[in-house]
Amino acid sequence: MIEYLKESTFVINDVISDAWDVLKKRYFAIAGICFLLFVVSNVSGILAMYLNSISIFLSVFMALLFLVLYFGIQLALFKHIFQVLDRKQDDIRWRDSIPTLKEMIYFFACVISILLGAFITYLLISVVFFPLIYLISVEVMVQIVYFITFVLAFCMFLRIAFFPFFILDKGVKPFKAIRLSLATTRGNFIRIVLLLAFFALFGSLYLYFSYRGYAVISSGLSMVNSFVIVPLSSVAFIIAYRKMVRDYRGDADPSIMENII
Length: 261
Known about the structure:
transmembrane, membrane, single chain
């Protein structure tokens, strides 16, 4: 296990190093899209509080609109990074980074499917642990169900989180994108966790120093997170995706059950 972790660490180092080289080529473009995501997220939150006091229907409509806009920009970021990886500098076009209607529909179809799957998992776990109410209190049983559901959902999400890349890069349909994400991440779970932990560390440091009241340090970390870590992580996960696809030797149309574990 220790040797595997060492090997995984070296792989993560390669991914981050490659991501940094790619980011330097188009830093202002990639960071600019990330900044646009930041603006949309904060503006939507402010408008939600304001519109909620005026009309609940208008608030819901604007929330859905900003949701589509936010994820549309997120997909545009991914498509732009794919261009940087696959094209020469002079051949990169902004218009080619705009997600198509089909790609947006496929993306949201995957999101809805994942949410439904998480809900069904919660119901199944609740049924399995229901007999515990005869041994422990209902409150404790509910907390156990929440915890197990969260752990399973988190692990499964890391496995299927690469589905947008298959939609944008390969043009596959929603359910196939989820199956391919499950298949290609099989055996790479620890590497994905380590990569996520590397970027999450900076966010944790920001929260820690912010909680401790070190305003200067927390402000500096916030700037680093916004303008370095977020753009770098976006590139890194796409490079990790490309490496996993390159090494994948499974079926072109894998099944879910064979790749869950």
